[in-house]
Amino acid sequence: MFEIVIYAALLVLCCVLALLLILQRQSKANASAQAWRLGHEQGHAQAKAQYAQQVARMTAYEQLLRGQTGGVGKHLADTREVAELIHRQAPALLRESNGLAQLLHGNDEFLNQLLDAYVAADQDGGGAQSRAAARLPAGIYADVFEAAGLPAPGAVVGKYFVLALEAGILVIRTTGKQGCFGRLRLARRDLERFFNDLTTKPRSLADERDAELTCRGLYRVDVNDDTRYGQLVIEVASPSSGHLYFGNPELEQEPLRELKSLKRAAQKLLEDEAKSPTRKSAAQRARILRRDALLGHVPDSGLCAACEGDVTMRLRLGDKPMGCPLCGTAWSE
């Protein structure tokens, strides 16, 4: 009987302990749930506050980009107008003021990236900012850097030649060293042929001119009254244009080698430009320009079918082009 009482007491004690353990765990679970609820409420409140702040910031940015002062498009066009004005009326200032050309171009790039982001986010309802920016083309900076005697951003500068890309067209000009002279604009489709021509035997320039042939390739200047008699010259034909003279015939091999070596750099410039947002958005700019180009023609893609250059970099709102501003090829619908 005594043993039964002991066993009963132990059983009761175990039940009490089990009950206490359950109550303790329940208390902890309740406390944890309460803490989670409080944390969730606080997190939710913080998230709402952060979201409200983000919305306020985005609203402020959007108001700034399309603001009462004209927005990003107007300021982009204003920057280009300043650059054009200095180039046209005070080109000496560009040569004398160190860094002015880069300053203008850098400001343009910053504003243009803001506009691209604004348009990409479908915020430019009706194309208002794009139209404002199209008032002046970005191509003005090629003229600005040339007037300043500086290579354009991204240009490859050698001893005898400078290679740059303007609106999808390769521009090669001489530095003036060793009597080298000239400038040419090379269309994409002519790149391979141009560099192949540099490896061929020079032909007679006089013979092809007498035969009234289109000069294209490497020639020896043998026209009697030509001031560059005896020099090598490379000629290109439409849609490319221009020529390059290699200076003193006794020293012509060094600049010729340098020009040949620029082939890979030229290909790289074209490859990078093909992937750039600027070229990819040419069609968008073309749509804006076409609205005001009555009696004129702007390609749907924004690219000239002949030279493959980005014509939107040289056209402004209201232009009514009948031909390519880059290569001069006549257009038709």
For the structure shown, list the relevant keywords.
single chain, alpha+beta, 333 residues, eight-stranded mixed β-sheet, elongated, 12 helices
Please specify the SSE layout and strand pairing.
Blueprint: H1 2-65, H2 71-89, H3 91-96, H4 100-120, H5 128-133, H6 140-148, E1 156-157, E2 161-166, E3 169-174, E4 180-186, H7 191-197, E5 203-204, H8 205-210, E6 217-220, E7 232-235, E8 241-246, H9 253-261, H10 263-275, H11 277-280, H12 282-290
Parallel strand pairs: 5-6
Antiparallel strand pairs: 1-2, 2-3, 3-4, 4-8, 6-7, 7-8
Helix pairs in contact: 2-4, 2-6, 4-6
Describe what this molecule looks like in 3D.
This protein is 52% helix and 11% strand. It has an eight-stranded mixed β-sheet. The protein has 333 residues and is of the alpha+beta class. It contains twelve helices and eight strands. The termini are far apart. The model has no long low-confidence stretch (mean pLDDT 85). The protein is elongated.
Structural class: alpha+beta
- Report the sheet-strand fraction: 5-15%
Q: Biggest sheet: strands, sense, closure?
A: 8 strands, mixed
Helix content: 40-55%
Runs in which pLDDT lies below 50 for 5 or more consecutive residues are: none
Average pLDDT over all residues: 85
Q: What is the total tally of β strands?
A: 8
First and last CA, distance = 116 Å
Note the overall shape. elongated
Give me the number of helical elements: 12
Secondary-structure element order, N to C:
HHHHHHEEEEHEHEEEHHHH
- Going across the biggest sheet, name each strand in turn: 1-2-3-4-8-7-6-5
